Amino acid sequence: MVQLVVELIDPQPGHSVYDPTCGSGGMLVESAHHVSRFPNGTLMGKPNVLLYGQEKNLGTWAIAKLNLYLHNMHAAIERGDTLVEPKHLDGDFLKTFDRVIANPPFSAKSWWTPLELSNENEQDGNKKPKAPNYKQVSDPFGRLSYGIPPRSYADFAFAQHMLASLKADGRMGIILPHGVLFRSGEEGKIREGLLFGTDASSGNQQGDLIEAIIGLPSALFYNTGIPACVLVLNKNKPHDLKGKVIIIDASRDYLEGKAQNSLRSEDISRIVSTHKAAFENQTEVDHYCRVVQLEEIRSNDGNLNVARYIDNGKTEEAVDVAATLEQLFALSAEEAQIDARLNVYLVELGLLETEV
């Protein structure tokens, strides 16, 4: 999975790469390895790339720093909750990067800031505390410009943080649960904003940001069996791809395991090469990849469920109704004969009385 997302966003020598939920640093390490394979990909014996990350968990943060050190890579790894307190700043603003990459926790709950939570839980005499109202969340960095995600689904909160951390010509890749492609409500509004932009009441935010959607198999992660997807967002899509979204259905290509499925090297290569051909030449592959116009997506109310756009190629077997009914009648007659013979045996054994 890490290799797949890195190859999709394709960081280049001299780029800055940021992972806001970096875990043990695997995506940053893979990004550096990717860059080092290019001409001018190394500088003074180290990958020619600037690495940045943030991790909430103390132990995991320490492992990330050690991981980068053992790989002889310098990285600025900060500790803290990215949504509550982003640490990579330029003054009072978010620092921006050439590439942003992440595999955030799926559908994290209660993601709004502790400060907002404490403000909303004010006591009123002896009454119970007020329930927190996540829709009143205010963000000093303006990251939630496309909408405030539901309190139980932080997926688009992380995605909007990443988008706000992206340079004007940058590209980002994020692994999310498949539900972000079709859930309605506030998430539907956010998705439509990313696709079609927003009106003046929502700040006239830029649309046409989704470059690609890759539908993945289920059970790729230990902690969940639900299918995932990769969203690639691009603030500077090439002219021939404007007004279009690459959609790839890679859900059927994987190695099945007892507890967890995995992508094989050939599965990753197929996704990456198909995406590259679609990105550069709008090439499509039957039952696997389409380059879909935004008008078609709008006609589906912004629903990006992969199955709406790609036929998996499976054809239903035609049923001969007459032959099936004939077979059922024959089986029914055979069953009656068996029951009659069984009753004879039961009578002979004295287990069934004969009717007078």
TrEMBL record:
Pfam families: N6_Mtase. The keyword Methyltransferase applies. Its EC number is 2.1.1.72. GO terms for biological process: DNA restriction-modification system; methylation. It catalyses: a 2'-deoxyadenosine in DNA + S-adenosyl-L-methionine = an N(6)-methyl-2'-deoxyadenosine in DNA + S-adenosyl-L-homocysteine + H(+). GO terms for molecular function: DNA binding; N-methyltransferase activity; site-specific DNA-methyltransferase (adenine-specific) activity. InterPro entries: DNA_Adenine_Mtase (IPR051537), DNA_methylase_A-5 (IPR003356), SAM-dependent_MTases_sf (IPR029063). Residues 2-317 form the DNA methylase adenine-specific domain. PANTHER family: SLR6095 PROTEIN (PTHR42933), TYPE I RESTRICTION ENZYME MJAVIII METHYLASE SUBUNIT (PTHR42933:SF3). This is site-specific DNA-methyltransferase (adenine-specific). It comes from Pseudomonas syringae pv. actinidiae.
